Amino acid sequence: MSVPEKGYEGELHYQYDSVSKGNTGSVGLTLGENNLALRLEGTKRYQSDYKQPEPLHQGETSRLAGSYQDNQSANIGVSWLFDDGYIGIGYGEQHRRYGLPGHTHFHDHEDDHHHHAPIRPPLIGHHHHNHNHEYPDEQHQHGIPYIVMDSKRWDLRGEKNNPFTGIESIRFSAVRTDYHHDEKEGNEVSTSFKNKGDELRLTFTHQPIWGWHGVIGGQFNQRDFSAQGEEAYVPSTKTKNHSLFLLEEYQLGDFRYELGFRQEWQSLLNRETQKNNKQSASSISAGLAWNFTQDYFLNLSLSHTKRLPVAEELYANGVHAASRTIEKGDPNLTAEAANNIDIGITKVTGDIQFNMSAYYNRINNYIYGQFTGTELNNGYRSLQYVQNDAQFKGIEGNIDYYYNQDSLIGISGDYVRANLLHNKGNIPRIPAYRLSTYIKHSFTENVIGQIRIDHFGKQNKTADYETSTEAYNTVSLGSEYIGYLDNTDYTLYAKINNIFDVKGKDSTSYIKDEMYLPGRNIILGATLTF
Fold first, then answer.
1. Where is it predominantly found (predicted)?
2. N or C: which end of the chain has fewer CB within 10 A?
C-alpha cells in the first residue's frame, strides 16, 4: 500500500449477470497523509440459482437448485511507511451463505463441499451486510443443504531494508484466521466445522555471495480443526508445521541459474486417540533460463519434492457428501515423493509472441481414495485412502499474432494425462483438454472488442467409479469502453458467454452427473476509479 499523492484514491465496481440474476458491487478507498495510509474495502454479491441450458432430469426446472450464493466481506488496513521499509496491520471478515447443489441425503442429512481449510480474505478486503434476501424455495421444499460461513482474519506485515551488513531486506508476516461454518437443512444445523490457524513467516534477502543472490527464511503454521455433528467425518486434529527454505539465483551472461531447498517438519495430533503423527520432508529444485537469442527464452526446471499427508487422508472415517463417498483414512500413510521436469520456450516481443511448455511428474506413494467396490444407498461409494505410484504429464501454451497495431488473433490450449502406474487405473477429477481461439480488436482508442471460441474435449480417461464427460464448444463475445472525466477513469463493459446455450459438464467436479454448467450469460458492468 502506498500513500496517494492527492491524499485519496478509490474505485467503484458494479456487475450484473443474467444467468443467475446476480448483482455484485464493491467499493475501495485509500486515504493517506505523510507516512500513513488507510485502506477500506467492501464487497456484496448475491446470485440466485443459475440457469442451465436445459434441465438435467425430466420434470425439473432449468434453474440448478441450490446454486445460489450470498457473500459479504470487508477489510480495513493501516500502513506506516518510512524511508527504508513499512509496517502494516489489517483485519478482515467474510460472511457467506450458499447452497450445495446436486446433493442427496445419506441417512438423514447431507454434507458439504471440502471446506476444511480456512477461507482467507485478503489483507485489505470486503464487507457489507444485507440479510433481506429471500432464498430459493427449493432449499426448504426439497431439503437442499446449505452452508452458513463466517471467517475472520488478522494480518501483521512489515519490511526493513538494509538492516545490517550483508542483508538487503528483512520481511515478516503474522496471520491469524478464525473460520467457522454450519451445514444446515432448513433451520437445523447438521454439522459444524471450526478451523483456527496461525502462520508466521520471516525471510532475509541477502546481498550476492560469489554471484548468488537469494532469500533464506522460515515459516510456522498451526491449524486447530474440529467438527461436530452427524457428518463430522474427520476427527478433531491439531496440525503443526514448520519449515526452513532457501531460494538462490545466479546470472551469467544469457543464462540465469536457480536453486531451491526446503526442509519441513509436521506433527498431526488426533485429539480423539491422542496419537501424534510426526513426519518430515525435504524438497530441492534447480532451474535454468537461457536467453538464447533476441526475444527468445528457454526454461528448464527439475525438482524433487515431498508432500506430507493431511488430516483427511490420515483420519477420515465417515460420510463425505461433497464427493458422495464414505471415506476411510490410513494413519500409516507416508509422504509423497515427486520427481518433475518442466521445459518451456517463450517469445516476448514482435508480431508473433508465444509461451509453450511441457512437463512430466512421477509421484511415488501418491495418495488417493481407492474405490473398495462397495456402493451404498443414494449412490454413495466407499473409498479407502491408499498409496500407489502415479504420473502426470501435460502440455500448455498460447500463440498470439499481432497482424496490426489494433488487432491480434490467438490460440491457446492445455492437456494433462494422469494415471496410476502398474495398470492400476486413472486418477479421478482430471480436466479434459482445451483448445481456444480468440480475436481482439481496438475499434478506437476507447472501444475494444473480442470474440472467443473454446473447445472442451471429451474426458473418458476416468477412475473406475467415475463417468465420462462429452466434448462441447462455447462461443463468447465481449466489448468495453474506456473513458476519462477530469481525474476520473471509467470502464463500461458487456459480455455474452456461451452464446448458443450449449450443454457442458465439468470433468473435475464431484457432482458433474447432477448438473450442467451455466447456460447463456449476459454480463454488464462498470468500473470507476478516482
1. membrane
2. C
Which pLDDT score, from 0 to 100, does residue 319 have? 85
Cα distances (Å, whole numbers) of residue 116 to 149, 232, 334, 467: 12, 11, 21, 26
User: Under DSSP, is residue 138 helix (H, G, I), strand (E, B) or coil?
Assistant: helix
Rounded distance between C-alpha atoms, residue 229 and residue 105, angstroms: 15
Grid cell listed for 132: 433481506
The reply to whether 148 falls in a domain is: yes
State how far the Cα of 451 lies from the Cα of 499, in Å rounded to an integer.
Answer: 11
- Counting the structural domains of the chain, the total is 1
Q: Nearest to residue 403, comparing CAs of 436, 439, 437?
A: 439
Q: What is the pLDDT of residue 401?
A: 98
SS3 467: coil
pLDDT band at residue 125, thresholds of 50, 70 and 90?
Answer: very low
Coil/strand/helix, residue 380 = coil
Residues near 175 by beta carbon (within 8 Å), at least 6 away in sequence: 120, 153, 154, 155, 156, 197, 198, 199
CB 389 within 8 A of CB 427: no
Cα 515 from Cα 67, distance rounded (Å): 10
Name, in order, each residue with C-beta under 8 angstroms of 33's C-beta and a sequence gap of 6 or more: 3, 7
Decide: 243 and 276 in contact? Cβ < 8 Å.
no
CB 530 within 8 A of CB 11: yes
Q: What angle do CA 30, 33, 34 make, to 5 degrees?
A: 135
Per-residue model confidence as pLDDT tens digits over 8-21: 999 999 999 999 99
Residue 211: how many CB atoms within 10 A of its CB? 11
Amino acid letter, residue 424 = K
pLDDT at position 377: 65
- pLDDT at residue 138 above 70? no
* Radius of gyration of the chain measured on its C-alpha atoms: 25
C-alpha cell at 326: 464414505
Residue 96 domain flag: yes
Give the span between the Cα atoms of 414 and 474, in whole angstroms.
16
Please give the residue range of the domain that contains residue 180. 19-212
- Global pTM reads 0.87
pLDDT at 114 over 70: no
Q: Which H or E run includes 484?
A: strand 472-485
What is the percent of the chain with per-residue pLDDT over 90, rounded to a whole number? 81
The secondary element (H helix, E strand) that includes residue 337 is strand 336-347
Task: Say if 493 falls within a structural domain.
Answer: no
For 47-98, the pLDDT digits (tens) are: 999 999 999 888 889 999 999 999 999 999 999 999 999 999 999 999 999 9
CA distance 530 to 528: 7
In a domain, 153, yes or no: yes
Distance (Å, whole) CA 90 – CA 190? 33
Per-residue pLDDT tens over the stretch 400-418: 999 999 999 999 999 999 9
